[in-house]
UniProtKB/TrEMBL annotation:
This is CalK. GO terms for biological process: DNA transposition. Residues 27-113 form the H repeat-associated protein N-terminal domain. Residues 120-365 form the Transposase IS4-like domain. It comes from the Bacteria. One of its GO terms (molecular function) is DNA binding. InterPro entries: ISAs1_transpos, Transposase_11, Transposase_11-like, YbfD_N.
């Protein structure tokens, strides 16, 4: 049974349902109820989902806290939800989310985020994160690992994909990419995603790529290091050099970092580049650091389908590579610090994956609400105190 089979509104005041609530019901209308059709259902699926989403936006981290939040807001929730048996118990929340098909919930999430996003000239960073306390020793299951897609300009997590316990991140990436509209956008992935088939899929879907290069591609890596060593060395006048450069200086917290970026599209004769679809440039980032009186130099390499022949190209590539790390700082770190994801012990069935998606939904909506200029944690508190502000967060269009 799905939402469309049940009247989600309170029987006493259907005309007073806030537009923001109607908006959310629209996207989650086709989520399938995992409970047996003839089983006794004291609480509708829409009530369970809605209370979970609202409670998470307001800072509830687990099923007990979500139940407590619902109890504290029961009178308000009854204005637009039919709750004849009150607020579901934490056991009910946990049981339903453990059974809920992640794909069904994810389709609703992707539909909503796709409606919010304005893609084109976007940088999409793909990266994975382990939810450490989701391991279930009783069932012999390790913690789940989820790969997410972050759209920098839109400031949205667009989709997530759980890595199969018997597989790894490489096999999850193609399935995550298939969910995304890559036309006119640049995809960035760490060295795990530096694979020929990944590059081909991105190009086939109309996108561009910047992939981190390490020793897991030994021939290409060695050729890249040798090429930049030669390009930066002394040359005779008759040698044709194709090399773009950019430099940025950052400082703060007792640390000064100067990032120098070189790129080249002069790949003729580099045999290891020939099998990579769409490959147009190699990139080297050199970051000397001065920390506590000590000098350090780090060199990192990438391959890209973007041009890399001029200083302007180098500036663009520098920005794209730096933007990739936003997924660590603006998604993974925030999920752990503001939403306590790493310490969350939800683990039964599909509940860890499903609740991880709800947290990303809450993160997206909280970040898009910009009328209150405070941090995310402060927004969560205000949403818990002020129903009107909570509805404003929910009504993102």
């Amino acid at each position: 049974m799905c939402f469309s089979d049940i009247n989600p509104l309170s029987e006493t005041c259907p005309m007073d349902t806030p537009n923001a609530i109607d908006h959310m019901f629209f996207y989650f209308a086709k989520v399938e109820d995992p409970r047996r059709p003839h089983a006794t259902r004291l609480h509708s699926l829409e009530a369970i989902l809605l209370i979970t989403i609202l409670g998470t936006i307001c800072g509830a981290h687990n099923w007990v806290e979500i139940e407590q939040w619902g109890q504290s807001r029961r009178a308000w929730l009854c204005e637009f939800l039919h709750l004849p048996h009150g607020i579901p118990s934490h056991d009910t929340f946990g049981r339903v989310f453990a059974l809920l098909d992640p794909e069904s919930l994810h389709q609703a999430f992707v539909a909503w985020m796709s409606a919010l996003a304005q893609l084109g000239q976007e940088i999409m960073a793909l990266d994975g994160k382990t939810i450490r306390r989701s391991l279930d020793r009783a069932d012999g299951k390790g913690p789940i690992h989820v790969v997410s897609a972050w759209a920098s300009r839109n400031e949205l997590v667009l989709a997530q994909f759980k890595v199969d316990a018997k597989s790894n991140k490489i096999t999850a990436l193609p399935e995550l990419l298939a969910l995304l509209n890559l036309e006119g956008n640049v995809v960035t992935i760490d060295a795990m995603g530096c694979q020929v088939e990944i590059a081909r899929q991105i190009i086939d879907q109309g996108g561009e790529y910047v992939l981190s290069l390490k020793e897991n591609q030994p021939n290409l890596y060695e050729d890249c290091v040798a090429l930049f060593t030669w390009l930066k060395g002394p040359h005779t006048l008759d040698e044709k050099i194709v090399l773009g450069a950019d430099e940025q200086v950052d400082g703060g917290h007792g640390r000064v970092e100067t990032r120098q970026v070189w790129c080249t599209s002069g790949l003729d004769g580099v045999v290891s580049c020939e099998r990579w679809p769409g490959l147009r440039s190699l990139v080297m980032v050199e970051a000397p650091r001065h920390i506590g009186g000590q000098d350090e130099v780090e060199q990192r390499y990438s391959i890209s389908s973007l041009p890399g022949a001029t200083d302007t190209d180098a500036t663009r590539l520098n920005g794209v590579i730096r933007t990739h790390w936003e997924i660590e700082n603006r998604v993974h770190w925030v999920l752990d610090v503001a939403m306590a994801e790493d310490s969350n012990r939800t683990r039964k069935g599909e509940s860890a994956q499903n609740l991880a998606l709800i947290r990303k939904l809450a993160l997206n909506l909280l970040r898009r609400e910009t009328s209150v200029q405070t941090g995310l944690a402060a927004k969560q508190k205000r949403a818990g105190w002020d129903h009107n502000y909570l509805l404003k967060i929910l009504a993102q269009t």
